[in-house]
Specification:
membrane, mainly alpha, 17 helices, transmembrane helix, single chain
C-alpha cells in the first residue's frame, strides 16, 4: 500500500474514534484536552524539532513568507471574500476580515507535518508561525481596536496601550512561544538536544509521543458544525482555500529549486484553519461595547463561532488530501488549476440562486437561515 495512503487511513481511523467519543465528552471538557495539546504536547514536539536544525540567517525567510501570506490573504478577504456578503452585513464582513487571513497551524497542520514530512519540516513550520503570530496577535488586535474606536460611543484612549502591553506579555508567556525562544537561544549557543541531561531528553520525548494521537482524537471530538450558515461559510472557506492555492503556486514558481518537502510545506501551511486569537480579540471588543452601551456591534460573535467550527474540519480534510497526493500538489500548474476550481466552485451557489430569480427571494437549503438573518439586520450599518 502507498505510504501516504497508509498514513492517511491511520489518521482518519483515529479521527473516527474521536467522533465515536463525542457523546461521552462534553463540549466544555474539550478545553482541557486543547490545553494539554497546546501547552504540553505540541511545545515538546516543536522543541525537539527546533534543536535538530542548524540556525542560519537564511531561516528568517520562513516567518517573512508567512507574514506576507497573511497580508495577501487579508487583502483578498477585503476585496474578494467580504464583498460576497450583503452590503448591510458590516459586522459579518469585519468578522471575516479578522478570521480568514489568520492561521492556526498548531491544531490543523503541525500534527500532519510531523507524520508526513518529519521533525525537520515541523521546525521550519514553527519558525514560519512566528510571522503568522505577529500578524494574528498584534496587527489584528490593533485593527480590531481601530474599528472599535471609530464606531464607539465613548472612546477609551488608555485601553489600547494597556491591552497591547498585556497582549505582548501573554504572547511571551504562551508555552509554544516560550519553547521557540528557548530553542533558538540554545541553538545560538551551539547546543542541541543531546546537550541536555538524559532524563530531560527522555521526558520531552515521552511528551512528544502523545501529540499526534491526542490531537487527532480532539479533531474528531470537536467537530460539531451548526446548520443555518453552513452553506455560506463552506463556500467562503472554499474560496479562501482557492486563493491560498494560487498564492502557493506563486511561491512555488518563485522557488522552483526547493526540495519536495519544502514545496509541500509551502502548500499545506497556508491551508491551516482560522485562528482562535482573532475571536479572542473580537470577544474583548464585544465586552467593551457592553460597558459603553454600544448598540451596533463591531463584530458578529455568533458568526465567528460558526466560522471557527467549520474551519478546523475543512482544513483538516484539505491538509490530509494534499499529503495523500503529495506528488500532485508540488506542481504549480496543478495548484493553479485547483485554485481556479475552488474559487469558481465557491461562486456556484450564488450563481444558482441568481438564476432562480430575484436575490431577495428566499432560497432553499442551507442558505435559508442565512438570508433570514440578513432580513432581520437591514438596519445595521455597513462600517
Amino acid at each position: 500500500m502507498n505510504f501516504a495512503l497508509q498514513n492517511t487511513l491511520e489518521l482518519v481511523l483515529v479521527i473516527g474514534l474521536g467522533l465515536l467519543l463525542q457523546k461521552k465528552i462534553a463540549k466544555q471538557d474539550l478545553k482541557g484536552v486543547k490545553t494539554i495539546i497546546l501547552s504540553v504536547a505540541l511545545p515538546a514536539v516543536i522543541f525537539v524539532a527546533l534543536l535538530k536544525i542548524k540556525l542560519e540567517s537564511s531561516l528568517l525567510i520562513f516567518p517573512l513568507l508567512a507574514l506576507a501570506f497573511n497580508l495577501i490573504l487579508f487583502l483578498a478577504t477585503k476585496y474578494v471574500l467580504a464583498p460576497s456578503l450583503p452590503k448591510n452585513e458590516g459586522p459579518k464582513k469585519r468578522t471575516l476580515m479578522m478570521l480568514m487571513p489568520s492561521l492556526a497551524p498548531g491544531l490543523s497542520c503541525f500534527p500532519f507535518i510531523v507524520v508526513y514530512l518529519g521533525d525537520d519540516s515541523l521546525a521550519l513550520a514553527a519558525l514560519a508561525d512566528v510571522g503568522n503570530k505577529i500578524f494574528v496577535l498584534i496587527l489584528l488586535y490593533m485593527l480590531a481596536m481601530h474599528w472599535y474606536h471609530l464606531r464607539s460611543l465613548k472612546t477609551i484612549k488608555t485601553s489600547s496601550k494597556s491591552k497591547l502591553r498585556d497582549l505582548g506579555l501573554a504572547l511571551l508567556r504562551e508555552p509554544i512561544n516560550m519553547v521557540i525562544i528557548v530553542g533558538l537561544v540554545l541553538l545560538a549557543l551551539g547546543l542541541n538536544l543531546e546537550s541536555l541531561p538524559v532524563f530531560l531528553q527522555h521526558t520531552i520525548g515521552e511528551l512528544k509521543m502523545i501529540m499526534a494521537p491526542l490531537i487527532l482524537l480532539f479533531i474528531g471530538m470537536a467537530v460539531r458544525i451548526k446548520s443555518g450558515e453552513f452553506g455560506i461559510i463552506v463556500s467562503l472557506l472554499a474560496r479562501r482555500a482557492g486563493i491560498t492555492f494560487l498564492v502557493s503556486a506563486a511561491f512555488v514558481f518563485l522557488f522552483p529549486t526547493l526540495s519536495p518537502a519544502l514545496l509541500l510545506l509551502l502548500v499545506v501551511f497556508p491551508q491551516s484553519a482560522c485562528s482562535f486569537w482573532p475571536f479572542a480579540h473580537m470577544s474583548a471588543i464585544s465586552t467593551l461595547e457592553d460597558t459603553d452601551a454600544q448598540k451596533k456591534p463591531t463584530f458578529d460573535i455568533d458568526f465567528a463561532v460558526n466560522v471557527l467550527a467549520c474551519s478546523l474540519p475543512f482544513s483538516t480534510v484539505m491538509v490530509i488530501g494534499i499529503f495523500s497526493f503529495d506528488q500532485l500538489f508540488i506542481d504549480p500548474i496543478v495548484l493553479l488549476a485547483f485554485g481556479a476550481l475552488f474559487i469558481g466552485g465557491s461562486f456556484m451557489p450564488n450563481l444558482i440562486l441568481r438564476l432562480k430569480g430575484d436575490e431577495q427571494s428566499e432560497p432553499s437549503g442551507n442558505y435559508s437561515t442565512y438570508v433570514g438573518l440578513n432580513a432581520q439586520s437591514q438596519s445595521s450599518e455597513d462600517k
